[in-house]
């Protein structure tokens, strides 16, 4: 069955009645920071910048925030919206908070265990506090649409493949180096292997060293994904819907026929879901 787009989850009613509002969702990853703006639940084109480029991060924040409408009752021109973020890189977390305070005078809300916004699904992992919040965000967004067992792969700096059972519990998964990280490691740790920009192989058998490295890294990632899904299916007792997201996900669209759908920026959708659940669970004053 074709996996439905999760873009509509910004306005989902699965967590009860919630008010439509403007949300700037921010995914602070290991290499990049992604900005997803939702205005009246309508998703705008997302932005992705290098997390190490402070000027680019500042410009992206300002560009997104300026698109929000001014609150009707504001006499100071304050925007009608909220910033919600998740982070897997602690050193960038505080700098992002500071940037929001200094540049737009806003306090962003962080998603996570014991944070401003709680996780939207239960973690059945051995050490929940150590489970990457980006993995949970992607899994939650996928489960809300699948409403059944689902496997979510995020292909970026790392390849994470995670499972959610039929009751919506995050079970954990498998983590491996991402394609670009593998390619850099091969180049830096060997004498003659070149560093390649990984792409879909032109031919099954690499005719030169560069093609061989490219094919090896590509097939390793694709094989890891397929084998993980198969093993997870054995654990879940049925073949789950499988969704792939992440910066490098597009490379594998034509190779992984077992994948139900490739979804852009699934983590951002999970951040929005988390905030919507927080609002729905908050008693009316």
UniProtKB/TrEMBL annotation:
What cofactor is needed?
Answer: K(+); NH4(+)
Q: Which UniProt keywords apply?
A: ATP-binding, Coenzyme A biosynthesis, Cytoplasm, Kinase, Metal-binding, Nucleotide-binding, Potassium, Transferase
Task: Show the InterPro entries listed in the entry.
Answer: ATPase_NBD (IPR043129), Type_III_PanK (IPR004619)
Q: What class of enzyme is it?
A: transferase
Residue positions annotated to bind K(+) are 154
Q: Please list the reactions this protein catalyses.
A: (R)-pantothenate + ATP = (R)-4'-phosphopantothenate + ADP + H(+)
Which GO BP terms, alphabetically?
coenzyme A biosynthetic process
This enzyme's EC code(s): 2.7.1.33
Residue positions binding ATP: 27-34, 157
Please provide, alphabetically and separated by semicolons, the GO molecular function terms listed in this UniProt record: ATP binding; metal ion binding; pantothenate kinase activity
Q: In which pathway does it act?
A: Cofactor biosynthesis; coenzyme A biosynthesis; CoA from (R)-pantothenate: step 1/5
Q: Which residues participate directly in catalysis?
A: 134 (proton acceptor)
Q: Which Pfam families match?
A: Pan_kinase
Q: Where, in this chain's numbering, is substrate bound?
A: 132-135, 209
Spell out the SUPFAM superfamilies in the cross-references. Actin-like ATPase domain (SSF53067)
The places in or outside the cell where this protein is found are:
Cytoplasm
Output the PANTHER family linked to this UniProt entry.
Answer: TYPE III PANTOTHENATE KINASE (PTHR34265:SF1)
Q: How does it assemble?
A: Homodimer.
Record's function text: Catalyzes the phosphorylation of pantothenate (Pan), the first step in CoA biosynthesis.
The record's comment on protein family reads:
Belongs to the type III pantothenate kinase family.
* UniProt-recorded name of the protein: Type III pantothenate kinase
């Amino acid at each position: 069955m074709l996996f439905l787009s999760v873009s509509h989850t910004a306005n989902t009613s699965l967590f009860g009645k919630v008010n439509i509002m403007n949300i700037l969702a921010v995914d602070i990853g290991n290499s990049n920071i992604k900005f997803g703006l939702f205005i009246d639940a309508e998703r705008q084109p997302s932005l992705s910048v290098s997390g190490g480029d402070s000027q680019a991060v500042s410009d992206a924040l300002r560009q997104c925030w300026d698109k929000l409408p001014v609150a009707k009752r504001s006499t100071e021109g304050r925007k009608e919206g909220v910033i919600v973020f998740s982070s897997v890189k602690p050193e960038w977390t505080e700098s992002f908070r500071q940037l929001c305070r200094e540049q737009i005078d806003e306090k962003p809300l962080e998603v996570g265990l014991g944070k401003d916004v709680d996780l939207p699904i239960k973690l059945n992992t051995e050490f929940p506090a150590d489970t990457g919040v980006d993995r949970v965000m992607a899994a939650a967004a996928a489960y809300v649409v699948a409403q059944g067992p689902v496997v979510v792969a995020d292909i970026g700096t790392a390849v994470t493949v995670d499972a959610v059972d039929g009751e919506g519990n995050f079970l954990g998964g498998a983590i491996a180096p991402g394609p670009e990280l593998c390619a850099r490691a091969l180049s830096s740790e060997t004498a003659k292997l070149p560093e390649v920009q990984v792409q879909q192989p032109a031919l099954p058998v690499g005719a030169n060293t560069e093609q061989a490295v490219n094919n090896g890294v590509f097939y390793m990632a694709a094989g890891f994904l397929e084998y993980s899904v198969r093993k997870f299916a054995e654990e879940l007792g049925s073949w789950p819907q499988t969704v792939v997201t992440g910066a490098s996900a597009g490379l594998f669209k034509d190779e992984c026929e077992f994948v139900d759908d490739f979804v852009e920026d699934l983590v951002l959708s999970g951040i929005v879901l988390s905030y919507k659940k927080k609002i729905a669970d908050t008693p009316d004053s």
